[in-house]
Predict the structure.
Amino acid sequence: MLDKSRSLDVDCVAYDLEDSVTLGKKPEARRNIRQFLQYRSAGIKENAVRINAVQTGLALDDLTEVLKAPNLDAIVVPKVNSPSDLSFVTDVIRHTLPERHNEDSSKAGTPPITILALVESAKAITDLGSICKASPYLSGLIFAAEDFALDLSLTRTPSLLEFLFARSAIATSCRAYNLTSIIDLVCTSYKGAEGQRTLEEECIGGKRLGFNGKQCIHPSQVDVVQKTFTPSGEELQWAVRISVANKKADQQGRGAWTLDGQMIDAPVVGKAQSIIKKAETCGLDVTSVTEKWKYQEPE
């Protein structure tokens, strides 16, 4: 299983020490992951490890072992119910790897270990503001729908409406506190054409709520998720046209103008710039699109 992951071309792979590993196998799993992360796979941008929840008493042993891996980039912390969970993990990381967690580390080209927090309970949802401020290394939140449903005695339905408040709260909190990773719930359907359609629908819904990524539980889900969360050709074209025309509008002293009969003002321009930035991150050819629309004028 570990070796198969090396062939993936993804933003992040999270190797698990929590639910998928029985109690008696956890020491062996820790050693295996530490050994596995001696090497970096070309297609994986970020190597992460999901440790056990802080309240289990197993997190310290997890961190003590996996933080020795030279190619570890992030720690996924499950069942984060309060800021103290993240404070504990942050303290361990700083104590174990002080050379990567001081003011000079970024200058030396050694970025700190980042933290991703799994939001799984009503308590967490009601304290998102404090959780988002709990660690300087927190890079994002992940919504764990199944555990959240268990905590609230909810039944998951295809519409996902029972999760609307929680998902909106997570996406809004991440934006408010400048957390870059806003990761939506797992899609449990992945087999066959129907599973792929369900996955695509969930991705589109999550994107509309403000999420910029989604958890995958099977390699067959990766292409659909990446395609949906990457700006489409139409989105990029729209954004570039606005960006080009807005520069000319600025020169003309026009704060608001129109494009294709729609009013364009500062918030719309900001959205266009965000799409262009994301397209560049995703490796799209923004330069060619900009060249195509270089004569776009504000209407």
Observations:
- The chain is about 45% helix and 15% strand.
- The mean pLDDT is 94.
- The radius of gyration is 21 Å.
